[in-house]
């Protein structure tokens, strides 16, 4: 098997079985990586980047998704340092580093001095999975969105993204691309919302899904409607629909300081199973 320094090489379609075995060690935490692998067959032209694998004794022991997002997969601290050393040889091409806390911290310790000051770091992000029964009744008014909802849904998506990330997704002429992403989620049946008298009061989306898990993103309630329990009951409804129709496990990650969101997720049956970290440029 041809490998490069530190036993790392880019993966390809022939490595897919080994990669799926790797992500299968924790299919909930690794849902993004497995989703990308299943939808691209690890072909660089579809990945929009590369999937690096680290091999030992003929076995794939860790991986790293290197696209717009850099995501370490089943990586120990040593694996993450090795991926970081490889990354130094090509310079920063990613906009975000995200994943389990230990490998993200290790990777950043290697590349940080060369990659420059990030726009923001979020080191403490609880990774949550719905493992308990919801303490509230699911909101019966939450439903899948349709193309007809776009005029109301899209501004809420922009507002959520801007509030969460700190930069509008429309910045730099990105509105067409972001609108296409929202439409893609609608067409897949991965976009959910509640509307009151034509106004959106809650929304959430499935970011990625595999046969084993789905990850929720974009949870949003307009500021003037917060504190009414809409997120709690809405998330209970979304999790119920997703587990019934998309994947058997539902997860998300949240900023540690977002106490209202964490309370809502806890009441909807979500418990912490890991810690994530994110570095944004």
TrEMBL record:
Superkingdom of this protein's organism: Bacteria
Domain N-acetyltransferase: 140-281
UniProt KW Protease keyword: no
EC number: 2.3.1.-
Keywords (A to Z) from UniProt: Acyltransferase, Transferase
A Gene Ontology molecular function term of the record: acyltransferase activity
Coiled-coil segments on the chain, per record: none
Root EC class: transferase
One Pfam family hit: Acetyltransf_1
Protein name (database record): GNAT family N-acetyltransferase
Organism: Nocardioides eburneus
């Amino acid at each position: 098997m041809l490998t490069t320094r530190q036993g790392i090489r880019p993966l390809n379609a022939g490595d897919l079985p080994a990669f799926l075995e790797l992500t299968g060690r924790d299919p909930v935490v690794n849902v993004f990586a497995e989703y990308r692998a299943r939808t691209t067959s690890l072909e660089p032209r579809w990945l929009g980047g590369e999937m690096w694998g680290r091999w030992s004794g003929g076995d794939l022991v860790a991986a790293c998704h290197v696209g717009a997002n850099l995501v370490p997969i089943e990586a120990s601290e040593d694996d993450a340092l090795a991926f970081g050393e490889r990354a130094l040889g090509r310079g920063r091409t990613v906009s975000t580093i995200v994943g389990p806390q230990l490998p993200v911290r290790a990777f950043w310790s290697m590349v940080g001095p060369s990659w420059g000051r990030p726009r923001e770091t979020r080191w403490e992000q609880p990774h949550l999975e719905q493992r308990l029964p919801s303490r509230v009744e699911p909101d019966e008014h939450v439903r899948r969105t349709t193309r007809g909802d776009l005029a109301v849904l899209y501004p809420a998506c922009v507002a959520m993204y801007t509030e969460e990330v700190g930069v509008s997704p429309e910045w730099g002429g990105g509105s067409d691309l972001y609108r296409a992403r929202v439409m893609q989620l609608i067409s897949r049946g991965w976009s959910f919302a509640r509307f009151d008298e034509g106004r959106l009061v809650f929304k959430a989306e499935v970011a990625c899904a595999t046969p084993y898990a789905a990850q929720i993103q974009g949870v949003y309630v307009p500021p003037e409607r917060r504190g009414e329990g809409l997120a709690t009951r809405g998330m209970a409804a979304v999790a119920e629909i997703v587990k019934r129709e998309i994947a058997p496990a539902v997860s998300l990650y949240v900023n540690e300081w977002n106490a209202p969101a964490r309370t809502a997720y806890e009441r909807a049956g979500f418990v912490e199973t890991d810690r994530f970290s994110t570095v944004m440029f």
